[in-house]
Amino acid sequence: HGYGSSPMLQDGRLFVVCMHQGPSYVLAIDAKTGKNLWKQDRTSGLTDEAQDSYSSPVLLHAGVRTQLVLEGAECVTAYDPASGDLLWRGGGLKVPHHAGRTISGPTAGEGVLLAVASGFQNHGYSVAFAPGTKGQSARRLWTQTGYSPDCPTPVIYRGNVYMIRDDGTASCLDLKTGRPHWRKRLFGENVKVSPVAGAGKVYFLSGHGNCYVVRASAQFEAMATNELHHATLSTPALSHGAIFLRTQGSLYCAAQR
What we know:
Elements: E1 8-10, E2 13-18, E3 25-30, E4 36-41, E5 58-62, E6 65-72, E7 75-79, E8 86-90, E9 107-109, E10 112-117, E11 125-130, E12 139-145, E13 155-157, E14 160-164, E15 169-174, E16 180-185, E17 196-198, E18 201-205, E19 211-215, E20 222-226, E21 237-239, E22 242-246, E23 251-255
Antiparallel strand pairs: 1-2, 2-3, 3-4, 5-6, 6-7, 7-8, 9-10, 10-11, 11-12, 13-14, 14-15, 15-16, 17-18, 18-19, 19-20, 21-22, 22-23
């Protein structure tokens, strides 16, 4: 299937995405039987790496409707998880690099869908959409350049967007306006890991397994730093008051005593 895109399981359906240089599609499978439920073509007609997407789908809750949202091939698209019907499309996400492709996934929260047009050498930009309804395009809320990552997916939390570029520069933007609150260089090493947030904190993890804990606020405040010095490409998981970190050789669990 599609490169680094992870399948998603929801209400007994497994959603599989394949977006690459060739026929592309999104497929829903019955999780118990393996039977195909529906399949939607997503071939873009683009050339070179602009077709490629390593992005995983997300679920967006808009009113009473749940939507399955995909990003890749210079646009975002939303589908009805039950039928596969295309609900809306948001375009204008041209990757500003000859080898650009979509790695960072879409982020949904607080009534906003955030998509990142990835690019090498910090040429990327972020676009916030107000989700559309069936047959109606999404409304663009704002576009912001200079802060966006190539690989890490941003996180929406308590009215702000937190993101980190691959060069280790983190930032906080206002979710509704895109106005930057702060930007700070946290790491000198490469970053491919997405930030996570919970309990009023945002966790940024470098490719060496070193963690910066920042208060979730419009004012930058470093709360703690932790160093593992173990290579990792995995995003931490938060559950039941604990944070789980997977490195190249170990699985760690950290919790407050």
